[in-house]
Amino acid sequence: MEISDIPTNELDTLARKVTNCQKCSRLREYCEFIGIRKRKAFLNWDYWKKPLPGFGDPKARLLIVGLAPAANGGTRTGRLFCGDSSGDWLIRALHKTGFANQPTSTNREDGLVLTDAYLTAIVRCAPPENKPTQSEITNCLEYLGKELRILDDVEIVLVLGQIAFQGFTHILKSEFGLDLVSRPKFKHGAIYDLPEGYPKLYVSYHPSRRNTQTRMLTWSMWIRTFRKIRRELDAHHS
Fold first, then answer.
1. Rounded to whole angstroms, how far apart are CA atoms 202 and 54?
2. Are the CB atoms for 134 and 166 separated by under 8 Å?
3. Considering Cα of 36, then 49, then 81, then 144, what sign does the dihedral take?
4. Residues 182, 180: Cα–Cα separation, whole Å
5. Is 1 inside any structural domain?
6. What is the residue range of 84's domain?
7. Which helix (H) or strand (E) holds 164?
8. What does the pLDDT look like over 145-202, one tens digit per residue?
9. Residue 2: inside a domain
């Protein structure tokens, strides 16, 4: 990915900026409320409550973009895709395809290590009903833009869900001035070649409980995407 001149140690600086962000009062108030109310199963937890930075390998060739932290998942644990059903699906798939050292992730200190993969999101605070406003999305997109500049080994971006898809394609134009002649459309399993110097774009439904329980997204559909990504990255490496 040839759109970066910022060293990878800037990820730590960016992470501090994200966790201290106070741009969206509605989201900050909601996360504080979640941390006070707590779900009954997690009454003994000291909820993270702050915005969540990205997580993973600074030399990742795979960047995975989700929607936002879950109220009792990442907002509780302090790590994206950690402690909820979406995270269970993602980490299991990453483990099966060689990107993660273990099949589950329950807290920030559980020993999870990602190799060649990095997790991020369009919005860094849990939104009420999983529905961020457009202004909240806009406020947060600068962080994804900075990650794209820092993570300059990325060859594939996997977007999870339509909001992630829209946010990523928007940022290509707003941050990098990339005006796509043939605009990609959201469709599970779609793969798009972007112009030279940019990563390939893979598209998937989000592994939300709603999507998996209704079988809009099945495990076979889900893991197939990761196996395709694994094969492509391995082919580039050989």
1. 19
2. no
3. positive
4. 5
5. no
6. 10-237
7. helix 162-174
8. 999 999 999 999 999 999 999 999 999 988 888 877 677 899 999 999 998 889 999 9
9. no
